Amino acid sequence: MKLAVVGSINMDMTVTAERIPLKGETLRADSISRIPGGKGANQAVAMARLGAEVEMFGCVGDDDNGKLLLKNLQGAGVRTDHVRVLEGVPTGLAMITVAENDNTIVVVPGANGKVDQAYVDSISGELGKYDMVVLQHEIPLETVIYTVKMCHEKKIPVVLNPAPAAAVPEEIVDMVTYLTPNEHEAVLIFGEQKDTEDMLRKYPEKLVITQGSRGVVTCLRSGEILRVPARMSEVADTTGAGDTLNGAFCVRICAGDDIRDALVYANTAAGLSTEKFGAQSGMPSAEEVERELGGKIG
């Protein structure tokens, strides 16, 4: 299993509070932490923890955050040979409030905004060495589209996690191998007038919609709507649960699982991740997921 992630590398500044503040309201935080994050980096770490060979592609600044993030990725077993370090550009930053078993996130792109088409051209030869390329929306959308088209031409399977929410052209939906929005993102892509089951049936075993505490849903090629319930968890922090699910799904699809088994595995990994604080620090190992599933992994 060799997976490439083209995406964001952020430092998460996370505060915990009694509840999410209302508009215009000031609350006292209980704690503040600086934690490695970014949807791209999170998914790369999730994959590496689950036993895949992973390389991260993206940009960081030449600041302390950038150095710490590269060291963290390397420590998690993720290759960073082609991550570009930019002079005079700050590393991406995410400001996260965790409260009431949920979170709010504001992202400052920084160096992630410099992951452009020229950068993708410079790594195109490397991407061809991988079994799958994984993308998200925390780098410029035009770069995501450009990368999908390039991978489609090279016949490299692509998973697009369209988060944060942004419209995705229909031609790009057709080109990707898997599209993994949450419910809000699916509405933005396909329109409010579309019924969830209709959306799924149009893209069988391609469109996978995550539904938070209700689990994940897709449509099998037989036309059956497959609903995989979320794992019951003692929730400490939901940050990174979606990234864990996406990473785990990619690993198991690359390992040859069918979509049902891959989603059961991914949901289990995501549930385990919510029981620890922090996005990457809460991500489970392959051994932990296998133990939870009773060793039933293909």
From TrEMBL:
InterPro entries according to UniProt: Carboh/pur_kinase_PfkB_CS, PfkB_dom, Ribo/fructo_kinase, Ribokinase, Ribokinase-like
Record-listed substrate binding positions: 10-12, 38-42, 138, 243
Organism: Faecalicatena fissicatena
UniProt entry keywords in alphabetical sequence: ATP-binding, Carbohydrate metabolism, Cytoplasm, Kinase, Magnesium, Metal-binding, Nucleotide-binding, Potassium, Transferase
Protein family: Belongs to the carbohydrate kinase PfkB family. Ribokinase subfamily. Belongs to the carbohydrate kinase pfkB family.
Localization, UniProt: Cytoplasm
Cofactor: how bound: Requires a divalent cation, most likely magnesium in vivo, as an electrophilic catalyst to aid phosphoryl group transfer. It is the chelate of the metal and the nucleotide that is the actual substrate.
Catalytic activity: D-ribose + ATP = D-ribose 5-phosphate + ADP + H(+)
Regulation: Activated by a monovalent cation that binds near, but not in, the active site. The most likely occupant of the site in vivo is potassium. Ion binding induces a conformational change that may alter substrate affinity.
Alphabetical list of PROSITE patterns matching this protein: PFKB_KINASES_1
Pfam families: PfkB
Binding site for ATP: 182, 210-215, 242-243, 267
The protein's role, per its UniProt record: Catalyzes the phosphorylation of ribose at O-5 in a reaction requiring ATP and magnesium. The resulting D-ribose-5-phosphate can then be used either for sythesis of nucleotides, histidine, and tryptophan, or as a component of the pentose phosphate pathway.
Domain Carbohydrate kinase PfkB: 2-285
Protein name: Ribokinase
Residues annotated to bind K(+): 237, 239, 273, 276, 278
Lineage start: Bacteria, Bacillati, Bacillota, Clostridia, Lachnospirales
Primary localization: cytoplasm
Active-site residue list: 243 (proton acceptor)
Annotated HAMAP family: Ribokinase
